[in-house]
Amino acid sequence: HKQPALPGTIIDATGAGDAFNGGFLPEFLSGSPWDDCLLAGNICGSRAAMAPGGSQGLPVRAEFVRYMRQMQPKR
Fold this sequence. Notes:
This protein is mainly alpha-helical. It has 3 helices and no strands. The chain has helices at about 15-30, 35-50, 60-70. It is globular and about 30 Å long.
């Protein structure tokens, strides 16, 4: 399975893996499809890497939901 990362410039990769886990795990634990879990992780990891410090770029809930809707393949 593959899911895209968000397009953008990497500023600081510190914390990107932790951010990926923070997006992936809630989806996984709630029983979401595997592709949605990966997409959620990629959104959070991508956003974290686009700002300095590891957590400044994390999306707020409304942004996260918007990215998930925009990037999910049509079912």
